[in-house]
Design goal:
The chain is an alpha/beta fold and about 450 residues long. The protein has helices spanning about 85-105, 165-180, 225-230, 290-305, 320-325, 340-350, 365, 390-395, 410-420, and strands spanning about 5-10, 15, 20-25, 25-30, 40-45, 50-60, 110-115, 125-135, 140-145, 155, 195-200, 210-215, 240-245, 260-265, 270, 275-280, 310-315, 330-335, 355-360, 375-380, 400-405, 425-435, 445-450. It starts with 5 loop residues before the first strand and ends with a strand. Bound molecules: S-adenosylmethionine (SAM).
């Protein structure tokens, strides 16, 4: 098998994150977005002694369960991978992928409680980060998502189905407005240009909407006209803020050198399981609100008893999980890297009438060492790379009787579980939860007990 050449493959199974798996002359080949049962023509894009990857160029024989999708950008947009697969099948594939990772890591003999569905299959996202660009070099301005399988090229997603109609209205208004102004979009390679991102956040349970226009500081621009246009737009929810974020960083992530409030306030409130949460533009917040209520209920069930216990909420964001378990606990200690999120967490605890929560800002690997409380339960909810080995060492030194691990990446989860189980713990139960229908992502909650 040679790199850049096309071969025929029969896809027999899938692996996280939605990789079709085929075998060729005894070697495993990973085929992005392939489905078991498909016969495809695919070009080998990577080949070394560990891994072979190929990209589908043509589907020769398709599966018979595909369905029609309503999204005009599906297929071109890099956001959703499987809107054309029935939801029950999506869930079955995700469940299989999570279980395979546990089996390959030799983590067995736990109760597997299946996969929970997302309460909403469409219109579920409470945050979306759109990018300015063009579809073809020099083409008209686009605003949306990176194109599937391409490093450049932005496809306009004014028809996106995983956000609600308020997001679609805002995107269309902003795009049309800037098309008329002929402002250059920011080019990641040359670092030149102005328009970078449009970030929309909406409290699904409160209806509050925050619009965030992210640009470089290379051009001075007056936003009065656009603010009026956005205020006049009709929304199902309520527009509570418009902000302008200046971001001159060279990387492709949304960060803020400076924020200017153009209208209203720079944060929104959201309600989860009867509690109130203030969300700052830079704070992490679960992107599927009603899914988060289900996810946090699973976490609460996995903890079962918090009466007079000390709970550590590590990687706590705006303090959501900790506060949901705080009413019965003796004390909650939350640690989070983003200072603004910690400020929100402290304010949120007050808002929710809780006086037994302490939130600490800092890198867990650095600040956990100074925490004097002794935890009965540790909740871990790290970002995709998992728990840093140094932080995990400290976590294990606390010798807590129970750990509940909430993960958005089952690959790094099983790696961390190998280290945790090698230190006298046992995986008791596991439940997957689909927070991101139509995409390859899945959350997994694990309860771990000291042996
Ligand atoms: C998956 S989010 C979970 C947030 C929160 N538990 C929730 O459900 O909303 C992971 C969080 O870890 C934070 N984080 C990332 N690296 C960190 C580190 N080294 N130390 C502390 N927090 C970190 C991120 O800012 C983010 O808020």
């Amino acid at each position: 098998m040679r790199k850049s050449k096309e071969y025929e493959f029969n896809i027999v199974e899938t692996e996280f994150p939605h990789q079709g798996i085929a075998y060729h002359e005894g070697r495993k080949v990973n085929i992005k977005h392939g489905l078991p049962g498909q016969k495809v023509l695919a070009r080998v894009s990577k080949k070394n002694s560990n891994k072979i990857e190929a990209k589908i160029t043509k589907i020769l024989e398709d599966v018979d369960y595909k369905i029609k999708t309503d999204c005009g950008a599906f297929g071109d947009c890099g956001g959703c991978s499987h809107q054309d697969v029935p939801y029950e099948k999506q869930l079955a594939l995700k469940e299989e992928q999570v279980l395979k990772l546990f089996k390959d890591a030799d983590i067995t003999e736990f109760d597997f409680l299946g996969i929970e569905s997302s309460p909403d299959l469409f219109n579920y996202r409470n945050k979306m980060e759109f990018t300015f660009g063009d579809l073809e070099k020099g083409g008209e301005l686009t605003l949306g998502m990176h194109m599937k399988g391409r490093s450049f090229g932005i496809v306009t997603v004014d028809d996106c189905r995983i956000v609600d109609e308020d997001f679609r209205a805002i995107l269309s208004t902003v795009l049309e407005y800037f098309r008329g102004k002929e402002l250059p979009y920011y080019r990641i390679m040359s670092h030149q240009g102005y328009l970078r991102n449009l970030v929309v956040r909406k409290g699904i349970n409160t209806g509050e909407i925050l619009i965030n226009i992210v640009t470089t500081s290379q051009i001075e621009f007056n936003y009065e006209e656009l603010v009026e246009l956005l205020k006049e737009t009709e929304y199902k929810g309520e527009l509570t803020g418009i902000i302008h974020t200046f971001n001159d960083s060279l990387s492709d992530v949304v960060q803020a050198d400076r924020i200017e409030v153009l209208y209203g306030r720079e944060f929104i409130y959201e309600k989860l399981l009867g509690m109130n949460f203030k969300i700052n533009p830079l704070s992490f917040f679960q992107t599927n609100t009603r899914g988060a209520e289900k996810l946090y209920s699973i976490v609460r069930d996995f903890i079962d008893e918090t009466e007079s216990k000390v709970v550590f909420d590590l990687y706590c964001g705006t303090g959501t999980i900790g506060q949901i378990v705080a009413p019965k606990a003796k004390k909650v200690v939350g640690i989070e890297l983003i200072e603004e999120a910690v400020k929100d967490a402290i304010e949120n605890a007050k808002l929710n009438g809780l006086d037994n929560c302490e939130f600490i800002a800092g890198d867990i690997a650095k600040v956990i060492y100074d925490v004097k409380d002794k935890p009965d339960i540790i909740i871990l909810d790290p970002p995709r790379p998992g728990v840093h080995p140094k932080a995990l060492d400290y976590v294990l030194k606390f010798n807590a009787p129970s750990i509940v691990y909430v993960s958005c990446n089952p690959k790094t989860l099983v790696e961390d579980l190998k280290a945790i189980t090698a230190n006298g713990y046992k995986v008791e139960k596991v439940k997957a939860m689909d927070m991101f229908p139509h995409t390859p992502h899945v959350e997994t909650v694990v309860r771990i007990e000291k042996k």
